[in-house]
Amino acid sequence: MEFRRTPDECFENLAGYPFAPNYVDVSDFEGGTLRMNYVDEGPRDGEPVVMIHGNPTWSYMWRKLIPVLADAGYRAIAIDMIGMGRSDKPTKMSDYTIDRHEKWVKEALFEKLNLTNAHFILHDWGGIIGLRAIADHQDRVNSIIMSNTGIPVLDPSAPIKKMARPGAGMLRAFQLYVRYKKNWQHWKMLSKITKSDMTSEDVAGFAAPYPDKTYLTGNRQFTQMLPTRNDNPILVENWHAVEKLKAFEKPFLNLFSDKDQIAPKGHNTVRPAIPGAQAIEPIILKGGSHFLLEDIPEAYAREVIRFLDGQKEATA
Predict the structure, then answer these.
(1) End-to-end Cα distance, the chain
(2) How confident is the model at residue 165 (pLDDT cuts 50, 70, 90)?
(3) Cα angle 296, 300, 302; round to 5
(4) Which of 239, 250, 245, 52 is CA-nearest to residue 135?
(5) Which residues have CB under 8 Å from 211's CB, separation 6+?
(6) 288 φ/ψ sector (left φ>0, alpha ψ -120 to 50, else beta)
(7) What is the DSSP letter of 41?
(8) What domains are there in the chain, each with its CATH number?
């Protein structure tokens, strides 16, 4: 599989991101391997807290949470999904599927890093991919925090009466825009969505992995995989994952923000089915956009630490 690798110098002196790279090799499904980057901060014997970003972000989005977790004694692990951040970037749109992203995450975290007793924090596409990975490794996972995301499903036994998904018009228009905008500068879009005024240095941090448009394939393909139609295969795949997660009774916190423009009610996709999510009322933080870690990082970190430390106290 052909791929691009962002030069190391692109990551020098990024604002608020002093973290060293770590790499694990995952299969490219064609007999080769791809290099996945992850941040690994805090004590190595601390309970691992795994952060999985969505699109169009990378591990840079967790830069204000990582040191808080590490200082609290947790092992803070933030991956860059394949095609994004400091990870390798296959060059064809067809190289990317949600099924492949799920398998890359499983291989990296559960096979190569061999994580156990892990806590997961999931945002945007990281919610779908992370939950699907967790579904097959529930014995390795102690808790889940899900933020501003959801997991849409379609029961494979249900007949499809209408192809378009409800409310898909806006997403469809977005898909078409990105499809024909080869040089989609998503970091500029991100800065317009946040409720706070991002500094130029922070915007440059999100742009750093993409020195030109040839590095954007993974980001662009994520937009094309949005489930705007009921024949999108991820919907049935998600359904199977949720069926497995009906056995997940461990703590599951929905930590959302009140100004989310993308998935403000995404918690409703997990609470009816997953016992751990049913047992804990969602927390809706005030003042955060979809990219809530840019707007309200202190409030977010406070709730994360409260949730994680509460579990320590409960098992002490």
Answers:
(1) 48
(2) very high
(3) 120
(4) 245
(5) 6, 7, 10
(6) beta
(7) E
(8) 3-315 (3.40.50.1820)
Q: How many CB atoms lie within 10 A of CB 128?
A: 26
Confidence of residue 314 (pLDDT cuts 50, 70, 90): confident
- Give the span between the Cα atoms of 20 and 11, in whole angstroms: 10
Q: Which of 125, 158, 131 is nearest to 145 (CA)?
A: 131
Beta strands 89-90 and 3-4, pairing class: antiparallel
Q: How far is Cα of residue 187 from the mean position of the Cα atoms in its chain?
A: 16
Token duo for residue 5: 């690798």
Q: What pLDDT, in 10s, does the model give residues 24-56?
A: 999 999 999 999 999 999 999 999 999 999 999
Sequence-distant (6+) residues with CB within 8 A of 167 are: none
Crossing angle (nearest 10°) for helices 200-207 and 186-193:
140
Which pLDDT tens digit goes with each residue over 208-225? 999 999 999 999 999 999
SS3 26: strand
Active site residue ranges: 124, 260, 290
List, in sequence order, every residue forming a beta bridge with 34; answer none if it has no partner. Answer: 26
Quick check: 311 and 72 in contact, CB under 8 A?
no
Q: Where are the alpha helices (DSSP H) in the chain?
A: 66-71, 98-106, 125-135, 169-180, 186-193, 200-207, 217-224, 233-245, 275-278, 292-295, 297-315
